[in-house]
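[#protein-structures] MJ: dropping methylated-DNA--[protein]-cysteine S-methyltransferase here for a structure pass
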Amino acid sequence: MALCHTRFTSPVGELLLVADDAGLTYLGFAGEDHTRHSAGSTAAHTPILDRAVAELDQYFAGERTTFTVPLSRPGDGEMGFHGRVQRLLATIPYGSFVTYKELAGKAGNPGAVRAVGTACATNPVPIFSPCHRVLRTDGGLGGYRGGTKAKELLLRLENIDFRN
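AK: finished. structure tokens for methylated-DNA--[protein]-cysteine S-methyltransferase:
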């Protein structure tokens, strides 16, 4: 499958979107090393990338609460702990959050709070698969691949109450 990419200027900075023929494979933030995810990709407009850009525009304008662009993640058939966590992210509704601990329990290992953090940090399609909706038990932000300022902006956009 051919990989294509485009860039999108958002309130959280420039984003790199990469897609194959089946769906969006990667969303990268400014300042990240995108080499592994975009190697061999060509800058192009494809229906999937155009749809992703349109949906992000609507999301940041407060007009979209769910995404419909297809996601294409290598290893989607695998059901390891990280895969289960990443699939569960899609079940966290817009405007709400779960804690790392709650997500660990839902994924079948209540003690694996740090592993949930790792699964969120390696989520290839943040925003579309909303790992920003996972918070610490005390209401604190926790980490975020795009940086805590980006996570805070996304939470405020969705009117999610959290503590700094």
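MJ: nice. The two ends are 42 Å apart (CA to CA).
AK: one more thing. The chain has a mean pLDDT of 94.
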